[in-house]
Amino acid sequence: MGLVVQKYGGSSVADAEGIKRVAKRIVDAKKNGHQVVVVVSAMGDTTDELIDLAEQVSPMPAGREFDMLLTAGERISMALLAMAIKNLGHEAQSFTGSQAGVITDSVHNKARIIDVTPGRIRTALDEGNIAIVAGFQGVSADSKDITTLGRGGSDTTAVALAAALDAEVCEIYTDVDGVFTADPRVVKKAKKIDWISSEDMLELAASGSKVLLHRCVEYARRYNIPIHVRSSFSGLPGTWVSNENPQGDEQVEHAIISGVAHDVSEAKITVVGVPDKPGEAAAIFRAIADAEINIDMIVQNVSAASTGLTDISFTLPKAEGHKAIDALEKAKGQIGFDSLRYDDQIGKISLVGAGMKTNPGVTASFFQALSDAGVNIELISTSEIRISVVTRQDDVNDAVRAVHTAFGLDSDSDEAVVYGGTGR
Question: Which residues form the ACT domain (predicted)?
Answer without folding.
Answer: 269-354
